[in-house]
């Protein structure tokens, strides 16, 4: 009932916004829009057929209340795919779990998690001395927490492994949160504007943390935001058992409801989109035929609304916004610019190190090996982490409360996505230029000089594009902070009067001109001048290496963009020299992040069953009664004891490390030699992991197909 009510109102907003977005798209197509031309090339198909990372990690299985060793793969679409073991992955068996991490938070301590769980069900807190909802067998947990969906519990053996997995998981969350395609000029703006209009109709202004994931996930979050408090009031007092059991049951209830809401929301949203697409040809025909009349009608409406609203808006801007614009801008500029400077530094160091190594080690074969790695630098979560971390300094302090900004995470993630894109553009431009030069080079000296010359050329382009991207980001962030604040301030005196302007819109054009949207455009114009001026002054003063708007590089390198239209460069295919993997083994996708051997770790990474040779077979886990909540994880002591025994036993010679070698060739040879440590291409120490033991049947875990997970954290039957 709640989903139907919310989606009914939202779909009405969406149909209205669809016509406006379609008009804006056609107008943009006809009139075009100026602006600085990017100097760097943009990769059209990044990371195709590549794996970001794969490795072994402990997962807590709620169905049988045990910790199990799982083989986790992060493919190029950033889903978390969990297999029983490495062998299951190589044999292309079905994975155990697929996790879409949109909306999740990555926690690295059980205390953080327990605090969030305690807050999710007020009045239910375990007494001191009682077992909490979760125990971790190591000091290095990794917990995926979601306000509505099920939670996922992982752990590793060392702090270094934890940091690496945390960077990988955060990259997954960052990518999945950005789930609305920016390529769509109609559906995406129609959707986001409809969400905003719906929330504003309920007096909810400002940023929204749960605007993350794809459209159906966002709509599910919208429903759950209203439904969960009612559900908690109705079900919370009726939960039975001790506090941890009630908390666990509540998480399961919330997850089950979230899945139901997701399916209902998806059906209703898909139907609304289909109706709009069906009407699209007729709407577009009307727009193209009557474009001039629609524009004239809209300008007439805007002039009337401007005369009514602008005096009030200007007073509000002067008193409540203008004094704080420079403070907000400075708070945004410092961490963002430091992050982009770090992107430049990481790129410079990687290319310089590659140049030195190619000259010292010699040969085109080495260049190919390093270029294969460099081409995916932007998607290396660990190497990019130093850039992303700069945004953690973003603090709006008192401004956050003044302008009703619930969290800065939306700005942090947006800036981090820009950083990754700029890094990939720089890398792609560099490899395209170098690829063009290779046929003309003779000897190492020529290669070294050419790499250095191309690097300097790309860095100049990076500085220009970085300035353009950052200035646009600052303007958008300032609008995102100030406009909701202004709309909320002006609502009591202006919003009730807007209905009288409806009669100024011709009925034929009512699908493309909305009073509410035009009103917001007028409010935006009232503050836009001050925002543009603040960013311009920062650029004139050369703060944080921003370029002035007057500094424009027009077609400085016209042939470069022609090169970017060619097919993707595959260095290993064009310049073969690496041994081929055995034909009968699964073709292994290239891996971006290499595997690490942790020197500080003293305990072996236990196999799945955690048993010594000659130990009795593991017992078949009992099926949990469907009416009873899962009991606390009673396998913690068992894991610790088994790990301690393994570290003293003969089996300690072979260590199962967190990760897997990224190349399939020669794996059996390494396994036969035991734990042979080698130097990886990233300088990391690589060890061949031992396969995890088979998990007993009847664990209660669901088997899934490798399709996309429909709900964040969903296991697909």
Automatic annotation (TrEMBL):
Pfam families in UniProt: Niban2, PH_Niban2
PH domain: residues covered: 50-174
Region Disordered, residue ranges: 558-717
InterPro entries according to UniProt: Niban-like, Niban_1/2/3_dom, PH-like_dom_sf, PH_domain
Coiled coil: none
Cross-referenced CDD domains: Niban-like
Family indicated by similarity: Belongs to the Niban family.
Record-given protein name: NIBL1 protein
Annotated source species: Pycnonotus jocosus
Lineage of source species: Eukaryota, Metazoa, Chordata, Craniata, Vertebrata
């Amino acid at each position: 009932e709640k989903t139907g009510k919310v989606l009914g109102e939202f779909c009405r907003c969406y149909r209205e916004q669809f016509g406006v977005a379609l008009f804006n798209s056609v107008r943009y197509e006809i009139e075009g829009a100026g602006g600085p031309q990017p100097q760097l090339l943009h990769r059209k198909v990044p990371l195709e057929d590549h794996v970001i990372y794969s490795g072994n990690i402990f997962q807590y299985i709620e169905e049988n209340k045990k910790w199990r060793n799982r083989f986790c793969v992060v493919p190029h679409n950033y889903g978390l795919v969990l297999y029983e073991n490495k062998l299951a992955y190589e044999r292309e068996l079905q994975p155990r779990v697929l996790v879409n991490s949109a909306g999740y938070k990555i926690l690295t301590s059980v205390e953080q998690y327990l605090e969030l769980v305690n807050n999710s069900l007020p009045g239910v807190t375990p007494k001191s001395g009682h077992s909490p909802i979760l125990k971790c067998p190591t000091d290095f947990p990794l917990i995926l927490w979601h306000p509505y969906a099920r939670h996922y519990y992982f752990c590793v053996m060392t702090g270094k492994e934890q940091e690496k997995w945390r960077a990988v998981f955060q990259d997954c969350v960052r990518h999945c949160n950005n789930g609305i395609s920016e390529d769509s000029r109609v559906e995406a703006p129609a959707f986001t504007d409809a969400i905003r209009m719906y929330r504003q109709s309920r007096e909810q202004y400002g940023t929204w943390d749960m605007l993350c994931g794809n459209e159906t996930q966002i709509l599910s979050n919208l429903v759950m935001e209203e439904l969960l408090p009612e559900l908690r009031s109705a079900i919370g007092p009726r939960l039975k058992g001790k506090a941890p059991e009630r908390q666990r049951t509540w998480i399961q209830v919330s997850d089950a409801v979230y899945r139901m809401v997701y399916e209902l929301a998806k059906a209703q949203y898909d139907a609304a989109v289909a109706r709009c697409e069906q009407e699209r040809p007729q709407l577009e025909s009307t727009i193209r035929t009557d474009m001039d009349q629609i524009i004239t009608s809209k300008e007439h409406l805007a002039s009337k609304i401007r005369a009514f609203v602008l005096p009030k808006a200007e007073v509000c801007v002067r008193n409540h916004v203008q004094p704080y614009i420079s403070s907000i801008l400075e708070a945004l500029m410092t961490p963002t610019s430091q992050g982009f400077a770090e992107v430049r530094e990481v790129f410079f160091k990687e290319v310089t190190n590659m140049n030195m190594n190619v000259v010292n080690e010699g040969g085109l074969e080495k260049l190919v090996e390093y270029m294969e790695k460099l081409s995916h630098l932007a998607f290396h979560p660990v190497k990019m982490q130093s850039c992303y971390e700069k945004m953690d300094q973003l603090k709006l302090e008192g401004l956050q409360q003044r302008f009703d900004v619930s969290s800065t995470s939306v700005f942090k993630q947006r800036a981090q996505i820009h950083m990754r894109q700029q890094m990939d553009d720089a890398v792609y431009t560099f490899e395209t230029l170098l690829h063009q030069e290779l046929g003309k080079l003779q000897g190492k000296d020529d290669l070294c000089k050419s790499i250095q010359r191309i690097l300097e050329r790309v860095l100049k382009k990076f500085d220009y594009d970085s300035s353009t991207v950052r200035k646009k980001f600052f303007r958008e962030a300032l609008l995102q902070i100030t406009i909701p604040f202004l709309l909320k301030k002006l609502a009591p005196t202006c919003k009730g009067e807007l209905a009288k302007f409806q009669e100024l819109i011709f009925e034929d054009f009512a699908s493309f001109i909305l009073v509410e949207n035009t009103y917001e455009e007028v409010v935006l114009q009232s503050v836009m001048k001050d925002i543009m001026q603040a960013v311009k002054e920062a650029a004139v003063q050369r703060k944080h290496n921003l370029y002035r708007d007057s500094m424009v590089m027009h077609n400085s390198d016209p042939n470069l963009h022609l090169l970017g239209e060619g097919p993707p460069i595959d260095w290993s295919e064009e310049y073969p020299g690496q041994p081929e993997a055995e034909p009968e083994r699964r073709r292994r996708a290239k891996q971006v992040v290499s595997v690490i051997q942790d020197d500080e770790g003293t305990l072996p990474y236990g196999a799945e069953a955690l048993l010594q040779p000659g130990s009795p077979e593991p017992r078949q886990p009992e099926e949990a009664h469907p009416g009873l909540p899962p009991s606390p994880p009673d396998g913690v002591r068992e894991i610790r004891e088994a790990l301690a025994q393994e570290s003293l036993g003969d089996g300690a010679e072979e260590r199962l490390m967190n990760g897997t070698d990224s190349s399939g060739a020669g794996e059996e040879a390494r396994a036969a030699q035991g734990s042979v440590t080698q130097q990886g291409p990233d300088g990391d120490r690589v060890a061949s992991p031992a396969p995890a033991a088979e998990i007993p049947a009847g664990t209660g875990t669901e088997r899934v197909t490798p399709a996309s997970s429909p709900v964040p954290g969903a296991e697909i039957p």
